[in-house]
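INPUT
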Amino acid sequence: MSKGKKKYYIVIHALHIYFGLFISPFILIFSISVLAFNHMGFLNQINPVKSLPEIRTKLDYIPYDTTDLLTAKAIIHKLSIKGEIDFIIKNEDQISFPVNKPGLITRVKVNTHTDSVVTTRVMEGSMRAMNYLHIMPGQHNAKIRGNSLFLKIWRLIADAVVYLLLFLILSGVFLWCYLKFERRKGFYAIILGFLYFIGLLFIIL
Amino acid sequence: MNNPFSIDNIIYWNRKLHIYIGLFLLLFILFFSLSGLLLNHSQWKFTSFWKERNETEIITPLAIPVNLDSVSLLHNFMEQLNISGEISNVSLTPDSINFRVVKPGTIQDIHIDFKSSMSDQKKIVFNWWGKMRILHTFNGSEKMNPGAHPNWLVTRIWRLSMDAIALGLIFLCLGSWIMWYKIRNDYSMGLIVLILGIAGAIFFIFLLRIL
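OUTPUT
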């Protein structure tokens, strides 16, 4: 290996190690949650959700704002609840919305006539917390998604994990190219993976 | 190297498998990374799929078999209509049957009237962006019935493949920790980086909900 090439190799090898180590816990979240999504029945058996006692309270007034989201945010601020507002249902009698955190769903129902509030909480456990993180921010309710700080940060992390993973793929191939003894078997692994992937797409589409 | 469970042997095979599994999963990782990005960025105009969908409606005469249970009935109708896919949303009444058949990129809502012996197929076909999105989440699970198993062989194969990819990725991640540990003196920052990653993951999974 020439000096110039060696310099690139050393830098890319170091970045492959550091980026790989940093995103590996997040890749574990995405991978473990795939197993949980695919075997939901089993997950429900080993880790059932736990409902916490209902809380009834009353607001001094409903802090109506210019949008439903801002109103819902003002309500949860008054109730000292933190989390991501998933969606909002509003009609003449009530405003209701779930407030999510990984592993915890809080459902808030506000009676607009009496200003009374019913709050129910469901503890979903760590596996479902990973499932939640896997699907967030996701494709649904894009207009209101990211209304909490933690989800804004998670959105950045999820994107960063994907971009770093793409870097790891490219750098991994680059590093493999320099391993003379692994070239042939590695090449077979790529071809096998390629054929398997294309074959699967062929039968499924 | 004689003892297959010796530390040296484990390290040796871990490194080999890290390379082979990583290369084998290359296209899968690429696919799920890119489709994951699509799902998280529905505002990207160039990946729009819903507006570009192609909707058609086909009305076909059918032979209605008698004395069949609902599963055999469904398979009989699908054979007559020459369609395949994951079946869901089945509702059977004395006069009709409604069901949905999904393949990544194609959704067919079918209504069959037993009295008139006619089937009404409403078919939606998505572009490649839509197919990618559906493939990312296609595992035969139903929201209302999470314990349900896939009823189409291809869905089972795809789901099994997703399980295998996930297990492969878990192996790559845990194996990378072992590989780094062996060269930790040359890459001492690795410990800080790994702790940062683990701390971030722990925060989101365990701590956030109690804060």
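end of record. Chain A touches chain B through 65 residues (CB under 8 Å).
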